[in-house]
Amino acid sequence: MVTVNDKIKELRERKAKALLGGGADKIEVQHEAGKLSARERLALLYDNSFYDEFFIFAEHIGNKTELGGKDLASDGVATGLGAINGRLVYSASQDFTVMGGSVGWMHSWKICEMANKALKDGAPFVTINDSGGARIQEGVQSLRGYGNIFYHNTLLSGVVPQIAIIAGPCAGGAAYSPALMDFIIMVKGTGKMFIAGPQVIKQATGEDISAEELGGAMAQASISGNVHFIADNDEHAIEICKKLLSYLPSNNTEEPPYYAPEDLEIIQDEALNHVLPDDPKETYNMFTILEYVFDPDSIFEIQSHFANNIIICFARLNGRVVGVVANQPMVMAGAIDINASDKAAKFIRFCNAFNIPLITFVDVPGFMPGVDQEFGGIIRHGAKMLFSFSATTVPKLTVVVRKAYGGAYLAMCAKSLGADRVAAWPTAEIAVMGAEGAVSVLFKDEIAKAEDKKAKRNELIDKYRDEFSSPFPAAAIGMVDSVIEPMQTRLYLSIALETSKNKRELRPQKKHGLIPL
Fold this sequence. Notes:
single chain, alpha/beta, 2-enoyl-CoA Hydratase, Chain A, domain 1, 3 domains, eight-stranded mixed beta sheet, 20 helices, 17% strand
């Protein structure tokens, strides 16, 4: 007679076998490759207090003969939910020890079920990608599974945060799931992401390139801009993921986490008055300003390897999470190009979807000129920033630090694009173009007639700056709310953020706007 204890013993044995995935020997191979197993990654991701794995006993639907007569433990993916810093998060972690983490129908169904539960429960969704790709033995069922994953990524978009960790191969159609998510973290050395691998490219075009050069972390972060964060190893990737989640609400109906600061004073540091160089052509690091303004150690940069002429980051101001968009004068003088436009626009839209106020720091000489930029569609790409800021309804605060010229000034959330507060430093220059260019056009004849052309030109440039491009003409017509000393910036933004936190803005009813893509 089979006893209850026998049944419990059988359950424990089945569960232990499933949790081993492809077996201890294959887990050891993972370790030798510098990778953790699927469940070791989840153990690091979640708080020790709570994790519940779903569908441990799931089985593939393929022909067992074609699969070598083997069962595939949990069909190659660990799915479940747990607590991260006390908040519920759903996850799916692909198990490379089980048939290379290949995606079959049940494998994809499990991922979609986690996405569904995340959607219903209003919880973030994290995937850890480590897969050889579609399970060829299941044929079109595998493609059907991928399609369902993409569909669910789209359903979750703008409702709950989605984070993808690329901890191994993620090639072909599989790469589109992370691309549909909000943030991608890739592990250096082991993570790979591309649509067509080196061999396919070699056959198709004759080009020789290694897998690392094509789809490694640095290539995907610095050249294509697909990857937001580079991690040194699996442990570092998990650490980045947990830190990122600490800035994000669980869903689009909640506010971002608020961390009440201990003994934090809204001080006015006079040192900020001396950050900018006297020469308007001399460069400086925008991060120096941000570090004075925001809470200590709260700046968390996104896409630090891509389009460095613009900065996007999360930060905290008196414990409140904000999204920051800032020009970086150290790179391309802070001009906005195609990549910077795309980088900023996506971040702006994410912040708007998840109720994160936006603060913009402006020092922009214009959109980047050039044939490559024009033919590459700088008009269309730059319009994404104009559209994104205009469509945004969260509190929008803008600080004009120095240069603010032409359409690029507008694209950095000018008053005309719905900024709720605009402050300008006395060093701000707000104009259609820089003083040098304007003087060359307006006073061409006067300069030509002068005995000392250089001296006359410099005189007219100084006069133009004083009379036309200083912040006061803009303040006179309401384009600037306040002209402030730099040291007052933190205080000004603190008050503006507090007074606008309950902002409500009605928009025309529609399915969605048609952003220029």
